[in-house]
Design brief:
The protein has 311 residues and is an all-alpha fold. Helix content is 74%, strand content 0%.
Length: 311
């Protein structure tokens, strides 16, 4: 079926409006489909067991919550992004810049930055976690801490599995689908719309990264995720290939899944929240400076606008 790209020559504001409308429709239709599909998989007690409260010690509840999380990945990120690209450019891979040819050197360097930068990112996370508000905003702060604690509890329940099947499901739910879906959504669609709108790639990258971090609704991890979004945005811009940020995103999330699995098996004495953390401030600052210099030296002469494919 060929869909005419009716949004191809439309102003970016109208593209964003249509994208939000498609997103709204996807959230409704895909979640309805997911609920219908859940009954033959889990039985008629699917909604009833969840309505009685979330017992994170119950494997049956965890399985159902993981299923809903997977459905939500399709409803929120994957389906609306793919549908929008059909109306905006017809050819999905061309519009979002998914290319077959990937520079091995570029990819290895981009991935190594994530690994080398772990101590710095975790240090930023600690600083973000110690954030406090004035007394007048104490109610807001309490709500944020409560939401953060609940999110941490769910994440721990998801990751705390020593079984191979649980590991495979976690890789799909936490690493593979978010890497594909979120990069299609944020870098493939949103960043391109904002680039057309603001006529400035730097504004587009920062605005997209802000939304990328905010949409996770984890306030005490906002800054590290914001920095990751900036990095992914520029990597996409420099490489002109969405596969690069997808693989980086996969590595970032997949590493947490692997560390949690090995910890649950008793093979690694580390926590996915603290893996790569260093208590040596000098090492943290020095590694950040080295990484920044390497990024600058490698990419300063690249013709980014041409490679990104947006004039």
């Amino acid at each position: 079926m060929i869909i005419h790209p009716i949004l191809q020559n439309q102003p970016p504001a109208l593209k964003l409006l249509y994208f939000l409308l498609i997103l709204t429709g996807s959230l409704f239709l895909v979640n309805i489909f997911g609920l219908v599909l859940a009954f033959p998989i889990f039985g008629r007690s699917f909604l009833e067991s969840l309505s009685q409260g979330y017992d994170f010690s119950n494997p049956d509840v965890i399985s159902k919550l993981k299923y809903l999380q997977i459905v939500n990945q399709f409803a929120l990120f994957i389906v609306p992004s793919l549908v929008f690209t059909l109306f905006a450019g017809n050819k999905i891979f061309t519009y979002v810049r998914i290319k077959r040819n990937i520079s091995p050197v570029f990819l290895m360097f981009a991935l190594s930055v994530v690994i080398v930068g772990l101590p710095f990112i975790n240090w930023i996370g600690e600083v973000n976690a110690r954030m406090s508000f004035p007394q007048v905003f104490s109610n807001i702060e309490q709500w944020m801490k409560s939401s953060e604690a609940q999110a941490a509890e769910v994440t721990t329940a998801f990751l705390n599995t020593p079984s191979i099947w649980g590991f495979v499901v976690n890789m799909l739910m936490i690493a593979i689908l978010p890497a594909l879906g979120e990069e299609l959504f944020f870098r493939g669609v949103l960043q391109r719309i904002f680039k057309e709108w603001f006529k400035n790639i730097h504004v587009a990258v920062f605005v997209t990264a802000f939304i990328f971090s905010a949409i996770h609704i984890q306030f005490y991890g906002f800054i590290p995720r914001f920095l990751l979004g900036i990095y992914l945005g520029y990597i996409f811009y420099w490489s002109g290939n969405l596969w690069i940020p997808i693989l980086i995103h996969f590595l970032n999330n997949g590493l947490a899944v692997c560390v949690a699995f090995l910890s649950a098996k008793g093979l690694l004495k580390a926590n996915f929240d603290t893996f790569g953390r260093s208590d040596d401030t000098f090492v943290i600052v020095f590694s950040a400076i080295v990484v920044s210099l390497l990024v600058f030296l490698l990419f300063r002469n690249r013709r980014s606008n041409k490679e990104f494919g947006i004039k």
